Request: fold
Amino acid sequence: MAVVPVKVWVKGLKTPIVTFNFLHSGSSSTLCTEALRKQLEYQMTVHLFQAVPSLACSNYALRKTANDNVQHFFFDVINTITRNVYVDDSLKSLPLVKDASTHVRDLCSLLQQGGFHLTKWVSRSREILESIPVKDHGKEIKRLDFQKDELPVERALGVQWRIEGNTFDFDVNLKPKAPTWVQSSISLVLLLLSP
Reply:
């Protein structure tokens, strides 16, 4: 699943990292005194995603949400945030569908407290997937008919998860052994001597 922050607010309005300058829409793109006078300055009050510090800020806000709500949710739900989230992905495995279903509901409820929404859900349990709105399913899962289709292969960080069989595969590309110095020398001599 992916953790999608709805809004992570910037504390204080004079934060230089979220100040943007734009030329007025009527000015030319060349930098001249007139264009600079028509320059507009905007201060963002929420973090822009895809900016370098945004992931760290969102991760902090995510953990803060978990810590602020520690008395209202089970330890396992809080622990999912603190131990099972990497950047904007989370990986959690539970042995029983009933436990997983409760966990999904509680996790979504916890993260809503901080303005987060979970998307790109993937599970090997069709029952769990059917309990989650289709708009929140992973890209490949959205297209499936759970009664007929086989679950797809998901990829992340160089690992392939074959959902149907619940196995992990690794793509390994071994480079051919580099030629030795002697082989390289002979190859070079033959290249020079060939007609």
